[in-house]
Design a protein that fits this description.
Elements: E1 23-25, E2 35-38, E3 43-48, H1 58-77, E4 83-86, E5 95-99, E6 108-109, E7 119-123, H2 136-147, H3 155-158, E8 163-165, H4 192-197, H5 217-228, E9 234-235, E10 238-243, H6 246-250, H7 254-284
Parallel strand pairs: 2-10, 3-4, 3-5, 5-7
Antiparallel strand pairs: 1-8, 6-7, 9-10
Helix pairs in contact: 1-2
Length: 295
């Protein structure tokens, strides 16, 4: 994703080489006719490469990580069909958040579902500048949309490989955005009123606005529908291909690990108490009743 300057007519995102009543899906590689997504129901472990953030201030690094986790939380709470779960070790992660330093005017870069051993979401220095940082959570929501298999809304016109899902018409008979339709997190914004309310140094009014707030409800609804389709379904002559990386297959979700740990600790406490009871009986004899308050 690239911030817009007076010489640009639209921002861009490096996750694709070149928003909404419907979502847009499909492989950005025009030679690949599949529609990639993660296997529904899986947990996708991710981590943060904190060493990469040493190049910036500690406050910036902490803010970037906290904001990314907040974006993850928004997608997770939407219950779209897969769950992101934080892990400390990169060896356990399907993807990692990395600080990428300078990269022209690019905000961030993500990836699409695959079985690659370790993927990356890169956030670049421009996203952390004072004039842009207010949109950081929206940038991360957008990049996580790519991770889930979503394309740019304008991919239908300017890029190949995108198909609209579910492809139904809106109430006014039009497919896609209308003046009153809710916008998509996968779309870029061009609203002069917000640009006026939040002036950006060096950026012309009426050129750019990344809204603050939560995921649009329509994105949530259509992504849920996308992930409810059966594996192998062909949509507009393109097969939906599910990816389930090896790390996701062997991963034990945090909640399950915690429940298992709590159960094991409970068993250990019971075992220790039984040993103490046994020792007390051996010392005082079976004819005497053990006081209730003796452990």
């Amino acid at each position: 994703m690239t911030p817009q300057t007076s010489q640009q007519t639209s921002p861009s995102c490096l996750s694709e080489t070149d928003s909404a009543l419907c979502i847009v899906v499909g492989n950005p590689n025009p030679c690949n006719k599949e529609i990639p997504r993660w296997k529904p129901g899986i947990y996708i472990p991710y981590t943060v490469d904190r060493s990469s953030f040493l190049a910036i201030t500690g406050a910036q690094a902490k803010y970037a990580e906290a904001t990314f986790k907040q974006a993850v939380k928004q997608w997770n709470e939407s219950k779209i069909g897969v769950t992101f779960d934080f892990v400390e070790e990169e060896n356990d992660a399907v993807f990692t958040l990395i600080y990428g330093g300078e990269h022209n005017n690019v905000f961030a870069k993500a990836f699409f579902p695959s079985n690659q051993d370790l993927n990356r979401i890169l956030v670049y220095s421009v996203a952390l500048r004072p004039e842009y940082i207010m949109w950081l959570e929206w940038v991360f929501l957008h990049e996580l949309g790519h991770v889930l298999g979503l394309r740019h809304e304008f991919a239908l016109k300017s890029e190949k490989g995108g198909v609209r899902f579910p492809g139904e018409e809106g109430a006014d008979g039009q497919v896609g955005n209308t003046p009153t339709a809710p916008r998509s997190v996968m779309e870029y914004y061009h609203r002069s009123e917000s640009a006026t309310q939040h002036p950006i140094p060096g950026v012309q009014p009426n050129l750019m606005d990344y809204p603050e707030g939560k995921l649009p409800l329509k994105d949530i609804e259509e992504t849920r529908r996308f992930y409810k389709l059966e594996s192998g379904t062909t949509y507009e002559n393109r097969p939906i291909v599910d990816y389930n990386p090896q790390k996701a297959q062997v991963y034990q979700p945090t909640a399950i690990r915690k429940a298992t740990k709590d159960a094991e600790e409970g068993i250990d406490r019971q075992r220790e108490k039984a040993e103490r009871d046994k020792a007390w009986l051996q010392k005082h004899g079976k004819e005497r009743r053990k006081p209730k308050d003796v452990d």
